[in-house]
Design goal:
heterodimer; A: about 260 residues; alpha/beta; Rossmann fold; 8 strands; B: mainly alpha; 2 helices; elongated; binds adenosine-5'-triphosphate; binds magnesium ion; ATP hydrolysis activity (chain A); AAA_dom (chain A)
């Protein structure tokens, strides 16, 4: 059974790509087969964190959409590249070429695109979790990704603008009938120590908060040079996010079990 | 070469649905204001509780130093 998950936030720079990449290797460490997809088609960057060079990324989602390559050409197995001892991480990148970006924005794609990709990953690569990294805000392409996925992980900082946006986003997702879980990121360290924080924020924004990730100087100064958790497995950021990964597994297994047959 | 069936379909059914749900949200702005003010109050409350705790801990530490 493949679960599709969107990592999203109302505002930019909340840590979506950092979370996507770290979550992928942590799910792999828990024995899962994961595919991370850069759906931030207007400003892709996930490949940078995975240290995927343009030479390695010969074909992108853009090439596949326009029938210029086969599916296997865009699926990169990063398991050895990242030296993962367990599980697997695959990566599907998005083109950084401006001419490709304008084309895909102008011409678009339908929801079939997401289902097609997820089904192929499930069938041909035996993937447990497909994670879509997205462009921030309530744009149509991102909402399409959300509508086509099983769960959404919304990232939010402890900032008034983020709160408003996350509240509105989760209200919309509810209208769509979609499950959304919130993770607080870049939380001031002293505040992160408050055990009441997740439940209090959940009540206010009317959406379940499943994780709290403090702001760490070390994560910021890592400057997206590789997946942080792999370089610093003992760091509290890694252990906190591991808890989120376990929670995601728990929640998605539960919802699968309760799904009508 | 024919393009794959899932592309160039910006007017798909689901896109139309997204547009219609979004247009009919009827967002209650006073409710949004309320969420923000509750959030601000809660943060202040949590912060002051933490400060309180810290000052109590430091007082305790001083006491132990004296012993
Ligand atoms: N918990 C954290 N503590 C400190 N820095 C963090 C944390 N999480 C993410 N960052 C840093 O914040 C910056 C933005 O992160 P990232 O690029 O993942 O955000 P994003 O949401 O993907 O941005 P965009 O909306 O532009 O796609 C990066 O430099 C990252 O290292
Ligand atoms: Mg990003």
């Amino acid at each position: 059974m493949t679960t599709t998950c969107v990592v999203h936030s109302y505002r930019g720079g909340t840590g979506k790509s950092t979370t996507t990449s770290n979550l992928s290797v942590l799910l792999a460490a828990l024995g899962k087969r994961v595919a991370a997809i850069d759906m931030d088609i207007t400003s892709p960057g996930l490949h940078v964190i995975y240290n995927v060079s343009s030479q390695m990324m010969r074909n992108t989602l853009n090439d596949y959409i326009y029938n210029r390559c086969e599916f296997s050409d865009i699926v990169m197995d990063l398991t050895n590249h990242l030296k993962l001892p367990r599980g697997a991480v695959y990566f599907l990148g998005s083109s950084m070429k401006p001419e490709e970006i304008v084309k895909v924005i102008r011409e678009g794609y339908s929801e079939k695109f997401f289902r097609h990709i997820s089904e192929k990953l499930s069938r041909e690569y035996n993937i447990d979790y497909v994670i879509f990294d997205t462009h921030p805000g309530l744009n149509e392409d991102t909402l399409l990704a959300i509508m086509s996925s099983d769960v959404s992980l919304l990232l939010m900082r402890m900032d008034k603008q983020d709160v408003t946006g996350t509240y509105i986003t989760s209200q919309i997702l509810r209208k769509f009938g979609k499950l959304s879980y919130v993770t607080l990121n870049m939380v001031p360290p002293n505040l992160a120590e408050s055990s009441d924080l997740p439940s209090e924020v959940s009540k206010i924004i009317e959406a379940p908060v499943i994780g709290v990730l403090p702001f760490y100087e070390e994560v910021l100064s890592h400057r997206s040079r590789g997946v942080f958790c792999l370089h610093h497995p003992q760091h509290p950021y890694s252990s906190q996010l591991l808890r989120v990964a376990k929670r995601v597994i728990e929640l998605t297994t539960q919802s699968q079990n309760s799904m009508p047959v | 070469m024919p393009e794959r069936e899932f592309i160039s379909d910006k007017d798909s059914e689901m896109r139309a649905k997204i547009r219609s749900i979004m247009s009919e949200m009827n967002t209650d702005t006073s409710k949004v204001e309320d969420v923000i003010s509750k959030f601000e109050d809660k943060l202040e409350d949590l912060n002051s509780r933490l400060e309180n705790l810290e000052s109590r801990v430091s007082k305790l530490e001083k006491k132990f130093d004296l012993l």
